[in-house]
Input
Amino acid sequence: MSNLIETSPSNPLAAIANRDLLAQLLSDKRSPHTRHAYAKDLKDFFGTIANSEPTPEMVTYFLQLERTDAVTLVLRYKAILMERGLKEATINRRLSAIKSLVKLARNAGKCNYTLEEVKGEKVQVYRDTAGISRELYRKVLAMPERDEFKGKRDYALLRLLWDNALRRGEVAKANIGDFDAEAKTLKIRGKGRGTAFEVIDLSLTTTEAIRDWLLARRELNQSAPLFISVDPVKKGHRITGAGIYWIVQQYCRAAGVSKQMSPHRIRHSSITAALDATNGNVRKVQKLSRHAQIDTLMVYDDNRSKDQLEISTLLADMV
Output
């Protein structure tokens, strides 16, 4: 493929500044997965438009383009992505990486245009919010050997995932000092909230499960992880998201759950069960799920109540 832009000499000092700019863009992303995705997306962009790596010189040249040239270039790149048959979500993510670079450069006074004219593709997402029933999860909770060290940890962890619909990252990041047994609360670092804390209330059952685990730990350091690995290789280290995933899978299989389970499926199950228990009170359940947009929670309620199936059945019976 021929280059969509041709390079030209640029100010070497500007190149150095923009090398730092690209590094800053990636370092600002807290998630290693997001950093990797942005780096890959920008590499694809510059590789496609100029058959080049995102070198400081190439980044400088792109950021110094006239607005119409830059917009035309990115729109052409978007068209190429669509020609490749990529999914809308993938296209939007790659455009987002480019827009983030331009926005950061503009805020730093190193770019005079925006890419507001470049719109993403509309994505129709199907969300399978079905999890498992509370009766089946009760069997999962009965699996850990609660008189053993590992069992105490796993029971407390499984209770947190269900009772508070936590994400595995929120569980993994929690420290001992974040838990207040007397107040029955836990400080968590919620998704998309950076380093900000959010205090959630715990049920008495979950509070006692965590307290039982910590008594077995005999750990006094408040900055120590709330949950640690107990396997011989990584014993004492903070449990990872992958470790939590593995724990969930092992206990669900042992309890006879046929569905492929994950911490997020437990979250789905918990939210759905809460909607059932509150007769679909999405405002109240939003306090549990902590979704920023209530529309997200409505997907759970629609799937739970099977409204669409009910209407479709009514229509089918009419003819």
In short: The two ends are 56 Å apart (CA to CA). The domain at 134-311 is CATH 1.10.443.10 (hpI Integrase; Chain A). The mean pLDDT is 82. The chain has two domains: 12-107, 134-311.
